[in-house]
Amino acid sequence: MPLSARDKLLSGNQSHSLQISERASLFGRQKRRIIPTVPYRIILDSERYNFAHLRHVLACASPARSGDELAGLAAADPVERMAARHVLADIPLRDFLNDVPVPYEDDEVTRLIVDTHDAASFAPVAHMTVGQFRDWLLSYTADGDAITALGPGLTPEIVSAVSKLMRNQDLIAAARKIRVVTAFRNTQGLPGRLGTRLQPNHPTDDARGIAASLLDGLLLGVGDAVLGINPATDSIANGIVLLDMLEQVRTRYAIPAQTCVLTHITNAIAMMARGAPVDLVFQSVAGTQAANAGFGVSLSVLAEAHDAARSLNRGTVGHNVMYFETGQGSALSAGAHHGMDQQTAEVRAYAVARAFSPLLVNTVVGFIGPEYLYDGKQIIRAGLEDHFCGKLMGLPMGCDACYTNHAEADQDDMDNLMMLLTVAGVNFLIAVPGGDDVMLSYQSLSHHDMLTLRSSFGVRAAPEFEAWLHEMNLLDPDGRLRVNAPQSLGRILGPG
């Protein structure tokens, strides 16, 4: 029986030193050809452009964004950017298997990518260039099943490369073909469905304040993807208190949704050891070993937490127990990007997430700030890129369509992004009361925005959660939120 990605990961951890040297030798012998010392070149409008290596081509081909400019990686001007895209379009996909951006010997994320690459899944497109792959993805031939079958054979660098040749409409058209279905207490990612994360944060973790925010979201039909709290105090004791509160609410009203306190993964492991009611294990992840070390995490720690959460067997309709967050710029902000543009580093984080079959993955697209995504245009583009690339890698992608108050963006930009992502088939979006997170101090989407998307595009909550909303008399027979839904407050609260 072939090993799963996770089995290969654990196997690699068991005899680390010996296997690294053996695999490095094997990789060089079987997969790596000699890379020409001549750089990638093109003459465009009588001007010669030279690109030293694939990393250089990828960085210069990226749409303009402040993070790459900050790192000194961006194209000098739009003409050089177009020259890089011309070069990129003609590069064979196989080249990305032969020229990894971070050395195999130095980076466990690279080892994960190389060791779990499925040559059989890659075979149908192995003969293509990046440009030909882009054209195929947009063709009638490439339906959802055909694209999904490629997933284990696609490396992050291939996925990043093809996205750089796509306009926004291309990213939407290709991504909407792909469905990634996961389940725990309800089923996420089904056609015609849009999940929502209810984020009842509070600046002091006050239980009454969190409960009020939780109720506000539930009354507006939000929360099927996860009832998830970002704790203001990231301690084991505080996390257990919040988990117990969420568990009491969930069980008292038989809510078919999963809960999560977004504490550090080592805290989650400790809380599970103490018998806390952990549904989903959360962790922010990045695309290099060094960047993940900055988060205080490694692949072995992720595997430990995954096994611990699975052993609790708390899911009712499925067993996907991991929740990952990512965001362009995280590796760069840690000085751990290894000369990669921020989007390529971001897609490598999806390889980390993919190894653990998560229930949810979302890009917190504008959260890091204008140093990495300067304005609404860059945030929208990044959100569409991340969703497309994550789906192509086989992930259940969601998005926190958000921005910080010092970015050149506003709520109209987030309106545009949420609608574009809904058309693209995003698995879930994040919502906070009034679109303003009072604990993290950034702007996101509101509970009411989710109602707009449901009425405008006909998308609905997860079927199990939708049935609960009907049972609580919050939806009318047509599945719309009742105008008098707040009158159901007494029934939800019950006696006492």
How would you describe this structure to a colleague?
The protein is an alpha/beta fold. The chain has a domain at 182-492: Aldolase class I (TIM Barrel, Alpha-Beta Barrel). It is built from 24 helices and 14 strands. The chain has helices at residues 5-14, 16-30, 54-61, 66-70, 78-89, 95-98, 108-115, 119-122, 130-137, 144-150, 156-163, 168-175, 207-219, 236-252, 265-273, 289-294, 299-312, 330-333, 342-354, 376-392, 411-424, 447-457, 463-471, 489-493, and strands at residues 40-44, 47-51, 182-183, 187-188, 195-198, 226-229, 259-261, 281-284, 322-326, 360-364, 397-400, 428-431, 436-437, 442-443. The strands form 4 sheets. It has an 8-stranded parallel sheet with strand order 7-6-5-12-11-10-9-8. The longest helix has 17 residues, at 236-252. The protein is globular, with a radius of gyration of 22 Å. 50% of the residues are buried. Mean pLDDT is 91; it is low at 10-37.
Question: What is the level-2 CATH architecture name of the domain at 182-492?
Answer: Alpha-Beta Barrel
Low-confidence stretches: 10-37
Counting DSSP E segments of at least 2 residues, the number of strands comes to: 14
Total helices: the number is 24
The helicity comes to 40-55%
What's the name of the CATH homologous superfamily of the domain at 182-492? Aldolase class I
Largest sheet: 8 strands, parallel
Mean pLDDT, nearest integer?
A: 91
Strand coverage percent:
5-15%
For this structure, the CATH topology of the domain at 182-492 is TIM Barrel
| Gyration radius over CA | 22 Å
How does the helix and strand content classify structurally?
alpha/beta
Strand order of the largest sheet: 7-6-5-12-11-10-9-8
What is the general shape?
Answer: globular
Please write the CATH class name of the domain at 182-492: Alpha Beta
| CA(first)-CA(last) distance | 55 Å
GO biological process, one term: ethanolamine catabolic process
Pathway: Amine and polyamine degradation; ethanolamine degradation
Protein name: Ethanolamine ammonia-lyase large subunit
Function: Catalyzes the deamination of various vicinal amino-alcohols to oxo compounds. Allows this organism to utilize ethanolamine as the sole source of nitrogen and carbon in the presence of vitamin B12.
